[in-house]
């Protein structure tokens, strides 16, 4: 038994008794293409790439008996949550609460037809709503709606025209929604759904955590019922916090107690829902229960009159007629609309993919862009703000048994009932309760902070991206913070690509496996140890071409150990190199004792050697470049590779390439890599082992040829064949005497 302080030894790895033997020709790229014809590429048209009506794919296959009841239960549960969240998130968007109900209803109608996810619940989301609110507040602050009023107690007092302000904010929000929808529709039509890939998980995690903090601060003043200015831009959250604490003495106790109790109760019940989700068939709709109870208490006690509590007051009953937003405002919100459209899409696709993988189906990223674009355009005509999906609401829809977007349509029906019949009943509801519901739903986003230590252990660069994006979004605001996070993320990628890793490879004996000579032992070198295998683990482009040249130069220098002196180039062993003629010093012809100064070789890879220059004979014959990790080349990279090949050919060193992908070879052809007669496709091999076997055959052939030529030379030098035989016999006798 091991002592407490002893380190446990890892269990032995299983030994694999299976092996394989492959017998095939050595393939270079030219031979392989001649034997195996490439399949022509099929390019789909734009119409083929787009599935305009995905509903036609799944609705005819709908299983009424198996799915309908589950969708009804799920739709009712999701609709109750969506009704409350729509009202709550309207506070984040800086529009009247009733318009949140519209935003929870209209987007579902179009996504049902054009969307490809079966489980996401379309509607408002706190991060996106807050981004909309920042645009609304910047374009329609309270200061733009001040009016003068006089009465008996105060003369010339300044008041806010709330009706005009709210109308202007609704117009701005709906206009922004229309513009976001247009951008998303264009992105989908141009097939650039891949843009979401640039929003890496660490970046999204840091951004949403910062957004959760922004949401918390924005709702904190509502829970406390403390009035502050509407700050936007850099350090706005800091200014808001300072003003909240400066005015904290004016906290309304009725609103504070109601909000605090709502947060505690909602978070406690949500925790119970998570712990006992396998035992509870339907999650407890605690937000709905708390809202009904709070509304009843507020109405019975008359909190507005007796305690000056802030209540919803006015919720429109029924639907408003469609209205065209103000297109003239597009220019003022164009920049923000791009970030909102991408963030909204990224959140929806990320959530959709989670449930698509869980339930074994796929979603089309480009079609999702189109679906949300159409939904936001349609919603913008009905005074809504930008829609995406909410994690908590989608979790309710899926966990309660939702099978398809039929559950979404039923949830929209529940919201419609609330709009038509329950608007007036919810008017006594305190705003602090809605704000508390928003805060209670931020727990999941705040818990992402716990991922940072784990992320740091896995990949420090990703952890730094997370922290940087989070801090930038808190300090600079969500728009600039997201941009700063993207730029920082791109910078880390550029740095990693610009300074890639490279390794000299050695062969594992009796295998076709090649590993780094620095990391492994018992490797063997190339045939006759007169060559090297080099792996460059990066794309080759203008930003890292110098790194490629440096690693090749370093590898060759280690092989040659050449030094440049006044009298020419000498090898590491000190033997002079006769390929370079020594310079004649006319002014000082007799200075033999002057010490020579060794200098480092400087090679200009961008220019070819002069034709008449004598180049040194080097003791290597080949260099193999493993390009399996090269994903793309640009024109500068192709030109540099061509110069490298030609200059090594000048010193009788052959350069071979291995494991290049087909599209990389196509790029070489397009950029004229093979235009030179001395560069052919037969220097490209399918694998490193193919190249090494080819070199082994070359070495053997060369040895045979050298032996034949040597024999011929001896025959030519000797006039009589008998003299040659006698010379050979004398040599054999001398060898025997030496052995004795």
From TrEMBL:
Gene3D superfamilies: STAS domain (3.30.750.24). One of its GO terms (cellular component) is membrane. It is a multi-pass membrane protein. The keyword Transmembrane applies. It is found in: Membrane. Coiled coil: none annotated. Residues 533-695 form the STAS domain. The chain crosses the membrane at residues 89-114, 170-196, 202-224, 231-248, 254-272, 284-301, 334-357, 369-391, 406-426, 463-495. Keywords: Membrane, Transmembrane, Transmembrane helix, Transport. GO terms for molecular function: secondary active sulfate transmembrane transporter activity. InterPro entries: S04_transporter_CS, SLC26A/SulP_dom, SLC26A/SulP_fam, STAS_dom, STAS_dom_sf. This is STAS domain-containing protein.
